[in-house]
DNA sequence: ATGAACGTTATA
DNA sequence: TATAACGTTCAT
């Protein structure tokens, strides 16, 4: 699936052992140590090359050369800081998402073009979006268990070092925005699914319609959103405590833990997120604060 | 506050 | 029935 994420690169056969459903690949070791060194303000105010998101989207030839070593494996440019990697996702991805939320990131035509290249596979993406909406293709094991065709698309979208990140890691492409169920405009950023009334909002929040059953009232499990960076990870790191302790811990890999599920169900912003999402409102601020508190945005 | 362990629910 | 993983509790 074109929007599926796998930053771990090709797996070795013996890495895909521990789970039948999840292709297990160890994360790059650096994932373990990085932790979002930059906050939103940093991305917005610092014009340095290190945080020049536009530059990353549309890298200069020099950057492209730097980022494109001899072999095809995606590899970050040596001159860039550890923005590519972080426990909860990529710094770059994070920054870009924040900027997009804030409406500060404008896609250049070239970037759009490039992204739409990666979006050739809009069909599977559509399917994933639909599945995410119905709560069906939750696909433990990788945002919808990667079939052979999907893997093909993954690799075909990796012509450059940037496409796998821009096209797959987060929905940079405008084409992917509607697919992911997001709308932007007039300063408002909201999930189309969340915008829907009633149960749909809760579904978007991670509650399956079934889990919202009126009668039982027992503990119901929320579902992963399928859209956040961790959800898009396809692989377990096999190194975190959750992976190492899976039998006892019963927990998903730390790097795959849905951001939405990290929030308390009744926590701040829950209701407003259900009824709608206003960028300029306190919800956004709260969200940022929450992400900070999650350690995702520490700066 | 954080992480480990366990109970429980959801799904194949 | 097996497995994955969410939610809760408890120890640190």
TrEMBL record:
The keyword Cell membrane does not apply. Keywords: Cytoplasm, DNA-binding, Metal-binding, Nucleus, Zinc, Zinc-finger. It is found in: Cytoplasm; Nucleus. PROSITE patterns: ZF_CXXC. Residues 115-124 have a biased composition (Polar residues). Residues 58-71 have a biased composition (Low complexity). Pfam families: zf-CXXC. Residues 1-43, 55-83, 115-158 are annotated as: Disordered. Residues 125-139 have a biased composition (Basic and acidic residues). GO terms for molecular function: methyl-CpG binding; zinc ion binding. Residues 218-259 form the CXXC-type domain. It comes from the Eukaryota. The keyword Zinc-finger applies. One of its GO terms (cellular component) is cytoplasm. InterPro entries: CXXC4/CXXC5 (IPR040388), Znf_CXXC (IPR002857). Interacts with DVL1. Interacts with RBPJ. This is CXXC-type zinc finger protein 5. It comes from Solea senegalensis (Senegalese sole). The lineage of its organism: Eukaryota, Metazoa, Chordata, Craniata, Vertebrata.
């Amino acid at each position: 699936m074109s929007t599926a994420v796998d930053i771990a690169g090709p797996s070795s056969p013996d890495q895909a052992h521990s789970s039948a459903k999840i292709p297990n690949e160890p994360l790059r070791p650096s994932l373990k140590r990085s932790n979002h060194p930059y906050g939103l303000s940093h991305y917005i105010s610092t014009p340095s090359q290190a945080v020049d998101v536009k530059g990353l989207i549309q890298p200069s030839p020099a950057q492209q050369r730097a980022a494109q070593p001899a072999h095809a494996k995606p590899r970050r440019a040596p001159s860039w800081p550890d923005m590519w990697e972080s426990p909860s996702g990529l710094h770059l991805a994070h920054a870009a998402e924040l900027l997009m939320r804030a409406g500060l990131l404008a896609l250049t035509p070239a970037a759009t073009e490039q992204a739409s290249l990666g979006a050739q596979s809009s069909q599977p993406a559509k399917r994933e979006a639909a599945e995410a909406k119905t709560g069906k293709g939750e696909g433990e094991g990788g945002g919808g268990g990667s079939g052979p065709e999907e893997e093909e698309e993954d690799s075909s979208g990796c012509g450059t070092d940037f496409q796998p990140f821009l096209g797959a890691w987060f929905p940079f492409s405008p084409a992917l925005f509607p697919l992911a169920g997001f709308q932007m405009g007039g300063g408002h950023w909201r999930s189309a699914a969340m915008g829907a009334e009633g149960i749909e909002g809760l579904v978007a929040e991670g509650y399956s319609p079934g889990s919202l059953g009126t009668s039982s009232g027992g503990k119901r499990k929320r579902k992963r959103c399928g859209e956040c960076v961790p959800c898009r990870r396809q692989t377990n790191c096999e190194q975190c405590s959750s992976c190492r302790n899976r039998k006892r811990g019963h927990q998903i890999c730390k790097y795959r833990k849905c951001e939405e599920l990290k929030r308390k169900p009744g926590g701040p912003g829950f209701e407003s997120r259900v009824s709608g999402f206003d960028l300029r409102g306190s919800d956004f601020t709260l969200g940022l604060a929450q992400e900070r508190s999650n350690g995702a945005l520490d700066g």
